[in-house]
């Protein structure tokens, strides 16, 4: 499988940015709806700030602004238009529906959770890392199912966030106010997907675990995590 989402540009696309490549891979190959984030502006002593009107934005660059979340699409023409005109804005995945959902937690807790899940021999899906938070992508879940799973927990820390229907996650290789977004675990081809070079075969989205398989470990890791990063959504 091609280097995933921004690690290498596709040959033959003039002026194609890494973020455009990433957005097109999500939208057209995997059928994950995407949209541009607000992006950043400014530099110098004051640092880079969110391009939205809120001077106190808690998640600079890493949220929908114009267009809004409902504009998320898998249409290649729209994706090309967005990132041709604004090549440096972040790539946002609109979660829920048929698209992946996600669970995110402070970065230190995320590292502990991944170690625990690896130790249990659980296969993980893609994991997005920002300097403050990590997000584990999981198979789509409904609010009803999530509610049942959370009800079974003794306590759910406020630092653990859920990105389902109506939510979003910033994807690599975006840059946001807290720094560079990267893959802690890169997406892997699902079993039975098209072999390398089989251009005529339909693309298959990366494999995703079920939310129930990872929830316990994330709750436990978040419970013991310091508050650092819990205020941030991404």
Distance linking N and C termini: 27 Å
Number of helices: 5
DSSP, total strands: 12
Give the ordered list of helices and strands. Answer: HEEEHEEHEEHEEEEEH
Task: Tell me the major beta sheet.
Answer: 5 strands, antiparallel
- Strand order, largest beta sheet: 8-5-7-6-12
Query: Which percent range fits the helix content?
Result: 10-25%
Taking Cα atoms only, what radius of gyration do you get, to the nearest Å?
A: 17 Å
Amount of beta strand: 15-25%
Query: Outline, from the CA principal axes?
Result: globular
- Indicate the structural class: alpha+beta
Average pLDDT, rounded to a whole number, is 85
Low-confidence blocks of residues = 1-16, 227-233
Could you explain the architecture of this structure?
- The protein has helices spanning 18-29, 76-85, 107-119, 143-151, 211-223; strands spanning 34-36, 40-41, 49-50, 91-95, 101-106, 127-129, 133-138, 161-163, 167-171, 175-176, 179-180, 182-185.
- The protein is of the alpha+beta class and 234 residues long.
- A five-stranded antiparallel β-sheet has the order 8-5-7-6-12.
- Helix 1 packs antiparallel against helix 2 (76-85) and helix 3 (107-119) crosses helix 5.
- The two termini are 27 Å apart.
- The model is unreliable at 1-16 and 227-233 (pLDDT under 50).
